[in-house]
Structure formats: C-alpha cells, structure tokens
Amino acid sequence: MNAPAPLSSRYSYHAVFSDVCKTRFNHLATRLLLSMAMTLGLFLAATGSGNNTKVIQKIVLWPLKGFLCYLAVLLVVVTRKNYLHVDFPGYSSLVTQIYGQLCSVRLIVYFGIHCVSSLCLTGAARDAVYGTIQPQHLFVYRLTTWALIPALYTLQHVVFDLDKLTFQYGAQHQHPQQFIASRVKNSLTKCVVLTFCLILILPVSSFYFAPRNSALGWKISSKSAAAAMLIFITWDFANLAFNAYLSIGCLHKGKPISSLSSTPMETLITGLSSMKHFTKLTAFQELSYRATSPDMELRLPIYHTRYKNAYVWPSILKECLTTIDSTNSATSKFIKSLETQQGNFREAKPPAKSEFSEDCFEQDGLFGNDYVITTNAQSRIPGTPQPHDSQLTHRITVQNNNVFAKNHSLQFSSPFQFSNVANNRVLTHQTTITNVLYDCVKRLKEAFVAFFFPTQNIGSAAQLSSFELWRISKKMQAEKLAPLPICYAECVVSLMGILIKSLKEDPKGAVVSSVGEVLKILERSVGSLGAFAEWNDSLVSKDTSVPDVITILYDLSINAFLEIVLSYNELLNDVYLDDDVVKLSKWVLEICNE
C-alpha cells in the first residue's frame, strides 16, 4: 500500500482551521464586543457628564466613550489570542503551579495590558462613577485603577490558567450564546468576590503607600468598588465571549471543517497528526462527530476505497493508536517510578481465581452468547460514575508496567527546529525572528527547570522533584500525564463508533478486520490507566468529589471495550485475540452478568 502524497500546507487541516478561527475571532471582535462596547459607552455617556450637560453633548461623547471601551476589551482578547492553549500546563501540585505561573513573562504582559485597559475604562466611566475627584482622593483613585484592579484580575487569571480553552467530553459543537448564558452567573459571582477582595486590600494599601495629604473615606471607597465591579465585569465578559467563540467546535456552518477542503479525508488526517494541540483536538472532535453521527454519508469516505484512498482507515487508526499509546506509556512509566522511588505504592489486591482462571484462555463458549447488563450494589459496572462513598472496585492492574516503553535510537537534530506553515500558531503567524526568540526562551526555561526540578531520562522511571514529593495532587498529576484528555476520549469514542457502525454499513471492509488491534490497545489502556486510578498514597492530595482525568479515561476505555465486545459477540470467535484481551473480555462479561 502506497503512502498518501503530502498535501500542500495551504490545504492542511491546520490552514483550514486557522481560517475558520480567524473568522470566528472577527465575528467576536466586530460584532459582539463592538456592540457591547458601544452599548456600555451609551450608558456611561447618559449617566455621566452631570445633570446640566445638554443632550447633544452626551451624544457627542457617546462615540468617544464607546471607542475607549472597545479598545479596552480588544486589548484583552488580542492578548488572549496570543496565549491561547488547550492542554494542561503540566504541574503536579498546587505549589509548583503557583510558582510556575507567577514566575513567567505572561504575568508581566497581562498586568501591563490590564493597566492600559483599566485606564481606558476608567477614562470612559470616570464622570459617571467618580464625578469630581477631590485632591486628597486622587492618590486612592490612581492606586485603585492603575495597580490594584489590574493586579487582582491578572493574578487570578494567570494562577488559575484561564487562558486554557475547556471542552466537554463527547461534545463536538456548542453554541456561543448558550455557552455564555450558562456561565454568566458564575462570572458575576467571581466579579463580586474580586470586588470584595479589593475592598479588603484598599485600606491596607492606602495605609502603607498613601502620602500624608491623602485620605481614604467610605465615599471614595464605595466609588472605587463600583469602578472595580464595572471593570471586572467588562473584562470577564470579554474573556467569556472569547471562550465561547473559539471553542465552538469542529463544525462550520453545520458542516465538518474538513469539508471546506476538496480532499476532506486527506485534510482530516493532517489534522490528526498535527503538532499543534488546538488543531489536533479539533480534528479528533471531527472524527468523533463523523463516527457517532446518524448520517452515514460522513463515514462512507472512511469505508470506501474505490477512489484510491485505501490508506485512509489505516492512517486514521495509526493516529488514534499513537495518541492513546502516548498517554498509556506516560502513565505506565509514572506508576513504575512510584514503585521504584517511593516504595509505599499500594499494590492492588490480586483478582479472585474465578475471574482469571485457565478457562479464560479457551475462546470456545466465551463469545456468541447473550449477555444482559444488570446492576449490583456490591460491584461497580465498568463505565459508570464513581460512587462518592465507596472505593473503586474491579480494577485491572497491568502485570508489566513498562510494557509501553520503547527504545529510541539517538538521532542528531538541529537545536532550532522551525515549523512550516502547516504548523504555525492558530490565529497568529510567527515570523522567523519570533521563532528564534521563542526557541531561545524555551531552551533557557528547560535548563532552569532541569536544574531546579531534575528528572531522569524519559526512557527510565521519572524522578519526582522535592516540591512534588512534598505534596503531590493526584488530579494535577493526572493532568500532567494526560495533557490532552479530550483527544484521548475522542479517539476512544471514534474507534468505538466506527467499529460498531461498520458492522451494518461496511461489514466486509477493513474497519471490521481491525477489531482485534483496537481491543488490544483498549486492554492496555485498562491496565495502565486502571493502575493509576487505584493509586492511593498518604502523600497524595485527592479530591473525591471530582474524578481525575485518567480515572475518567479509564472508565471510558473499559466502557468502549465492553461495547465493542458485545457488538462483535459472535464474530470474535473467528478473530485472533491476544491472551490478555481474552482475559479482560471474560472479566467484563462476568461483571455484566453479576
């Protein structure tokens, strides 16, 4: 089978998706935010300027105030555009997260942008909020608008990494208006909390920094709080709208993004293999959308090979297996490092003899039977939500935690690798000079991290730093091991959907014949992810109310494994299956019939 000819960079998924993102950003900036800014400018012009100001004067002031408000929100969203990302930052504890986020250039950039934006908003709202400022109140006014308000919002934005776009598992498309409406209440609550923090900080800051001739009274404090509330709401709405428009998903005008290309499947494959996380995530969202859509026409290009595209399904399967295996490998190595380094890793209890008896190696009678899924209060059906008041049961632990380790030969590479057009940043084009500066900063950062947070070679067990050993968070460690859990989830959903639907839509095609390979990678996922899900240590900080991402992926993997086994029930008798796959198949079928 010949490999597909490489597409031109302008026909790649990244290029098409970048154009879509630019269109969405333009709609955000030229429609929603402009309308919001002009409305806010009209409100400030109507309520300010004093009662003696004529109507014509307020009408003249309206465009000026609207322009200042628009400039303020535009600065915020343009900065968000440059720091946009979809992956987790990769910290293992709250201490390392705070340290890493605060010691960054991004903090300085955001503080400067918020200072300028605050000056624009305060200039538009000064007569409406403050009115005439007394000389003794001038320092408090400047301290609030120039420093405290930008500092508070910058700290919470950077520390909690609010530049990251979030996506729901299994949701390939979301409407911007619905997204904003569902989060307005939380946004207002956050703005109230930030305003309350300002009220607490303002007296202390004024006591230490204010000159003798300045005074802080309840009147100027209430006006400062009102100005802070207005600015916080404006900024948070701009960020909320940015999240809504840039996380719409893989559909453009109701059609998959790859359909904008003349070669949709070839373009989609370039997205699945993209080095850019946002592009890769969206491509896997589209693959999942095609796999689960009731419209069979979206899957026909995957099945049919009459147009000399026989490499489509093998290429898709290869990218899915690579994505799943990368997380499995990282998780398996981490569990092995705990066994080697800490020595107090709690081993899971050995399974009962009836679960993994010698009979499970015999395929006769295992498949081709009718299975009814029943509920049992004493056991946890794979794929169901974790109970809050009980421990997870029926975990499968991998026998060899280094099963995913690979030997990579040393290859010489240039210290600076510049990406081509197909891998440029979404929305923002990077020049050669910016690439050089970025690579220099990246290497300095790697050297700094390697000195203070040493780790061993990736081929061996990872060495935890002293900060991580002090108090490691299981939730954050899971995010470090699986920085793109949405891609993993969409891979599993895509493979499950395509395999199950191909039984009726293309029963003699290449997809059906790949069931053994898919079951094998899912069995490995259950082993490695299940070992992490069972990880319980006294030094680990756990939040039982919300499961970590690896536990979620474990449940999804074992649920997909079960669905495929049940759908391919009789056919599996004629398929060669690995011994571990047969063991896990017997286990999940027994759980279904408990």
Automatic annotation (TrEMBL):
GO terms for molecular function: spindle pole body-nuclear membrane anchor activity. It comes from the Eukaryota. The keyword Ribonucleoprotein does not apply. It is found in: Nucleus membrane; Nucleus, Nuclear pore complex. InterPro entries: Nucleoporin_prot_Ndc1/Nup (IPR019049). The chain crosses the membrane at residues 28-47, 59-78, 191-210, 225-246. Its main location: nucleus. One of its GO terms (biological process) is protein transport. One of its GO terms (cellular component) is nuclear membrane. Keywords: Membrane, mRNA transport, Nuclear pore complex, Nucleus, Protein transport, Translocation, Transmembrane, Transmembrane helix, Transport. It holds the Pfam family Ndc1_Nup. It is a multi-pass membrane protein. Belongs to the NDC1 family. This is LANO_0H11980g1_1. It comes from Lachancea nothofagi CBS 11611.
